[in-house]
Amino acid sequence: MKPDPLTLALPKGRLFDQVQEHFGARGLRFDFGGRKLTALDETGTLQIILVKNADLPTYVHHGIAGLGVCGDDVVYESGHEFTHLLPLAFGGTKMALAARRDHVRSEPPGHLTIATKFTRFTRDYFHGLGIPVKIIRLDGSVELAPVLGLAPYIVDLVETGSTLQANGLEVLETLKVIGVNLFANTAYFKLRYQDIGRLVDTLRS
Amino acid sequence: MSPNHNEKLYKLPQGTERLVLDEAFRRQVLTHRVQNLFTSWGYQPVQTPVFDFYELYAPFLGAKADSVYRLVDREGDLLVLRSDITLFLARSMGVVLTEGHEPLRVCYADTILRHQDLEDIAANEFYQIGAEFIGSKGPEGDLELLLLLDEILNLLGLPEARIHIGSRALFNAAFGALSPAEQRPLLEAVSLRRWDTVGPLSPLFAYQGDAAGAAALASSVPHLTPAIKQELAALADRAASLEALGLGDRFRVDLSEVGRHDYYTGMVFQVYQPGLGDALATGGRYDQLFSRFGLDSPSVGFSLHLGKVEHLVDLGALAAPSGARPAPGDTLADRVKNARLLRAEGRIVTL
User: Fold this and answer.
1) What is the pLDDT of residue A182?
2) Looking at this predicted complex, what is its ipTM?
3) Left if phi > 0, otherwise alpha if psi is -120 to 50, otherwise beta: which for B275?
4) Which fold has domain B15-161+273-318?
5) What is the domain partition of chain A in residue ranges?
6) CB hemisphere CA count around A180 (13 angstroms)
7) CB-CB under 8 Å, B254 with A61
């Protein structure tokens, strides 16, 4: 008897096309026709659900999807722990500290005011260095914060740096290289480790 | 009435739950059934205090110290609300039993109170039901608890649940020479299967499978010390005993199981059920825990979060009080008489 398909959550947005191509090249082809949010791949190996990037760890944490693909940044912000299965060779980016090109350090030494979407990462990173930070949470267009004077610094994902450049900002420091991973809910992995092992072998090839 | 009265009225403080009517009845029935099973296995009930002195428990809380509720009593002592029944039970029995006592089997079903993040409330970790075999030394004690747990899973109608058994002693044999601060990231790496952190012993801790496969690791994984081989053989023996009892499908050796609490010293296990994002029961052997509470006695036990599986259990054709019918009769006397007759037949009747 063929086992039930493995459940996999994929993020909508920038990563989706790359995941679809990577999986398709290894015989796991799927297609979300119209506005559907679930699909079964052609081999019946994977039942795939499409969710918002930031919600993906929540679905996997609760076991609604057993497996997930997303960036380290999203997993870190969720605070959940998963079983890592496979780093994927695409979608990599970096988390960087940026400021206006003409910025002059005006805050007291060792103190930073930072606008970011990645509040957990930013707090842990700078506290780990012993630097107190004041964090202003934003949900998008973080580059505006230094331009409009909300905060002198931002922490954000930087791919090409063109958005920063267009807004007169520059990277001061790369804080972390962000990779994309296939990971599993730990309990789900325990129950389906043989099927998951086969999937990982397929995707690694 | 304050402006936020409604907000308070509809919100529950984090870390507790409310069960009413059919849900509460369901829990009562399931608890009763499991307790009857405990009784038939010779396990005696224990009720632990709802709060106790914080300082007694502080050394065991580790990272969980953040999630316990603390309060100050009238004498100024710091108290902690019951957040883990195993610890409260060890403290209670530690002062009741004396050295050299006869082995004692105890069980419990109680609420636990600890802070849970908004997202973790769905984990349903508010009510623990469990058993402990205090003074149990050898492998037979370990096996008794595993067999009892298997019967509970049968009673709850969970044939797909799997009990993964591993060993904290195996981890200690491999990494016990390191400081606690060095061990912590390795423990986490083993349980989350981050093999690049674990290093050369990864093929050992990555193993999942049957008893024979576990025993074979002793020769297939290079550079295992005699202490590691001894713990591996001990675990493989227990698994082989379970397989010999015809329970090979229920149990799996899983060496990435190393115990969620630092008080574990020997075999450890967790139970996984399809559809649940986390283990529904956890347990193992803790031979030094009681000594911290004044009693030098080995022990093995488990606890099960009943709330995680209540919705999966089929209670069968059980009559519930929500389906009660009024007794027939024009007068109270008639209704009392008819109700007695109907109740004697097992019907649920209101006056």
Assistant:
1) 97
2) 0.87
3) left
4) BirA Bifunctional Protein; domain 2 (3.30.930)
5) 6-92+179-204, 93-177
6) 19
7) no
Using the beta-carbon criterion (under 8 Å), do B208 and A63 form an inter-chain contact?
Answer: no
Q: How far apart are CA A40 and CA A46, in angstroms?
A: 6
B chain contacts of residue A83, beta-carbon cutoff 8 Å: 192-193
Nearest-angstrom CA–CA distance, A199 and A46: 9
Of B119, B122, B274, the CB nearest to A191: B274
Report pLDDT for B12: 82
Q: State whether residue A197 sits within 8 Å of chain B by CB.
A: no
Number of Cα atoms under 13 Å in the Cβ half of residue B347: 15
Q: Does A37 touch chain B (CB under 8 A)?
A: no
Does the CB of A186 have a partner CB in chain B at under 8 Å? yes
Using DSSP's 3-state secondary structure scheme, residue A48 falls into strand
CB under 8 Å to A83, separation ≥6 — which residues?
Answer: A183, A184, A185, A186, A189, B192, B193
Length of chain B equals 351
**CA neighbor of B166 nearest in space, from B186, B150, B136, B146:** B146
Q: Which residues of B touch A61 (CB under 8 A)?
A: 119, 277
* Residue in A63, A84, A193 closest to B277 by CB: A63
Query: Do A190 and B208 count as a contact with CB atoms less than 8 A apart?
Result: yes
Cα–Cα distance, B261 to B283 (Å, whole number): 10
**Which one of A191, A192, A195, A196 would you mutate to disrupt binding with B, by most B Cβ within 10 Å of its Cβ?**
A191
At B242, is the pLDDT very low, low, confident or very high (cuts 50, 70, 90)?
very high
C-alpha closest to that of B57 among B298, B301, B289, B299 = B289
- Inter-chain CB proximity B193 and A64 less than 8 Å: no
Superfamily of domain A93-177: Periplasmic binding protein-like II (3.40.190.10)
| Eight-state DSSP code of residue B300 | E
Does the fold of domain A93-177 match that of domain A6-92+179-204? Answer: yes
Q: Which of B276, B284, B268, B285 is nearest to B306 (CA)?
A: B276
Helix (H) or strand (E) holding B271: strand B267-272
Q: Is A81 on the interface with B (CB under 8 A)?
A: yes
**Partner-chain residue, chosen from A79, A83, A193, that has the shortest CB–CB distance to B192:** A83
Q: Is A16 on the interface with B (CB under 8 A)?
A: no
Report how far residue A45's alpha carbon sits from residue A36's, in angstroms, rounded to the nearest whole number: 19
CB-based contact A57:A18 (threshold 8 Å): no
Q: Is 0.80 surpassed by the pTM of this model? A: yes
Show Cβ contacts of residue A109 under 8 Å, excluding neighbours closer than 6 positions: none
Write the pLDDT tens digit of every residue in B306-331: 999 998 998 887 888 999 999 999 99
The ranges assigned to domains in chain B are 15-161+273-318, 164-256, 324-351
Instruction: Supply the CATH classification number for the domain A6-92+179-204.
Output: 3.40.190.10
In angstroms, the CA B19 to CA B306 distance is 13
8 Å CB contact of A187 and B275: no
